[in-house]
Specification:
CATH topology of the largest domain: Rossmann fold
Radius of gyration: 26 Å
Distance between the termini: 86 Å
Number of strands: 21
Strand content: 25-35%
Structural class: alpha/beta
Shape: globular
CATH class of the largest domain: Alpha Beta
Mean pLDDT: 86
Low-confidence stretches: 43-52
Largest sheet: 9 strands, mixed
CATH superfamily of the largest domain: P-loop containing nucleotide triphosphate hydrolases
């Protein structure tokens, strides 16, 4: 008799499969992630074939007529911004974040906005009972007759609901709890997550229903389960922030229907998440004036400029190797800029510990903040504060030159709106700029020129 069932070991991090158990996954290098699964050949292919329907013929792309092209608005402007202008019909969106960061809260509030707009929405929870969902919805004031809730983990039952209920939007919270009876492995395993996501993806494309998948993240910050999940979906959003702080940032790392540079800023309150429409004012609200080591710079997040405060502390050390502790910035880039300061400015920073952070918990990864980093470190090292109302930005090269950056007029406009009176910008950008009233623009060519101007 031919054997139809075989046992395999699957890595719960990357999806690597092997016929025997190993302590360390050879694909991703993680320890103790291989879990035994019983696999029946052919079932996944059969399920996919059944869902895909009859075979279709290829057509010319210019002959396709776009129907229902308009996006669906959730009523949460920051959420719609990150999605690229609203929810695209038939899209599959994955939202990840640390436990307790507010993923389910964001989903309930987004569904409530859709329900108020006349959309019938279905919220499927595999982690909470219906009374628990109702209790949380009451606290968040997200109660609507157009919002349907169910506690279910069977993927077959959920797909049947799409036919019987016919919702306009579907939310799965979370994808790691979904279970397919065709597979014998436990919920949360690689096979179950992959099978459930595949069937939901096919259902979304077939019915034109947008589907949101809530995913847990590992301690390294990646979506738990196989990385294949990120390749299957249309959009991957990460909900970031420290649970000890009230600010949350929604960031797109993949978006087939919009930019991946946009971010949404929220504030966690007792009644849920509130949009922060002016992040610059938020991040600068507690900045102390005339404080050495504090510099304001401008970072572009998609199409929106955000003013952030860079804080630096340079303190002498008696150890042979000085510490470099960086939060919110690229540590390698800060080390590179410190080396430029030692070589081009003559500042002997090898005997100093350097600590840097971006106030407010936001992460900045853009070359345009290089001059701000150097100014903050120099301000702390010299123990001299930057003049109030001054903002700096520009990219710094290894030879100490200040190079041109993009979106200068947008950054300067935001600085003017926030009450700044002087901006240090790259000299090559100043030559191409139009005159802006009520703000002084100073062109900088080298880092030594910048330090002389500031101090």
């Amino acid at each position: 008799m031919k054997k139809t069932i075989k046992t395999i070991f699957s890595c719960q991090t990357c999806g690597y499969q092997t016929p025997k158990w190993m302590g360390k996954c050879p694909e991703c290098g993680e320890w103790d992630t291989l879990v035994e699964e019983i696999q029946t050949p052919g079932r996944l292919q059969t399920a996919v074939r059944d869902l895909s329907g009859p075979q279709v013929e290829p057509v010319a792309i210019d002959s396709i007529e776009l129907e229902n092209e308009a996006r669906i608005f959730t009523g949460i402007g920051e959420f719609d911004r990150v999605l690229g202008g609203g929810v695209v019909r038939g899209s599959l969106v994955l939202i990840g974040g640390d436990p307790g960061i507010g993923k389910s809260t964001l989903m309930l509030q987004a569904l409530h906005g859709l329900a108020k707009g006349g959309q019938k929405v279905l919220y499927v929870s595999g982690e909470e009972s219906i009374p628990q969902i109702r209790l949380r919805s009451k606290r968040l004031s997200t109660v609507s007759s157009n919002m349907l809730v169910v506690s279910e983990i069977d993927i077959e039952s959920i797909l049947a609901m799409l036919t019987s209920v016919k919702p306009d939007v579907l939310v799965i919270d979370s994808i790691q709890t979904m279970f397919s009876p065709d597979l014998t492995s436990a919920p949360g395993s690689v096979s179950q997550v992959r099978e459930s996501a595949m069937r939901l993806m096919l259902a979304a494309k077939k019915t034109d229903i947008p589907v949101f998948l809530v995913g847990h993240v590992t301690k390294e910050g990646a979506i738990a389960g196989p990385r294949l999940l990120e390749h299957m979906v249309d959009t991957v959003l990460y909900f970031e922030g420290d649970r000890n702080h009230v600010f949350r940032i929604l960031r797109a790392v993949k978006n087939r229907f919009g930019s991946t540079n946009e971010i949404g800023v929220f504030e966690m309150k007792a009644m849920g998440l509130d949009e922060v429409t002016n992040p610059s004012a938020l991040f600068l609200s507690e900045r102390s004036e005339n404080s050495p080591g504090s510099v304001v710079t401008a970072s572009m997040e998609g199409t929106r400029p955000i003013l952030v405060e860079l804080q630096a502390l340079a303190s002498s050390t008696g150890f042979g190797t000085p510490r470099r502790t960086i939060l919110g910035l690229d540590p390698n880039r800060v080390a590179l800029l410190v080396a430029v300061m030692e070589k081009k400015l003559g500042m002997h920073l090898m005997g100093y510990d350097i600590f840097m952070k971006v106030a407010g918990g936001v992460k900045v990864d853009e070359p345009a903040v290089d001059l701000g980093v150097i100014s903050a470190v120099a301000s702390s090292f010299l123990d001299q504060s930057v003049a109030d109302g001054t903002m700096v930005f520009g990219e710094v090269g290894l030879t100490g030159e200040v190079r041109a950056i993009g979106h200068v007029e947008t950054r300067v406009g935001e600085a003017k709106k926030m009450g700044f009176s002087r901006c240090l910008i790259p000299g090559s950008n100043l030559k191409r700029m139009t005159t802006i009233k009520d703000i002084e623009l100073i062109g900088i060519k080298t880092v030594s020129e910048a330090i002389e101007t500031l101090f």
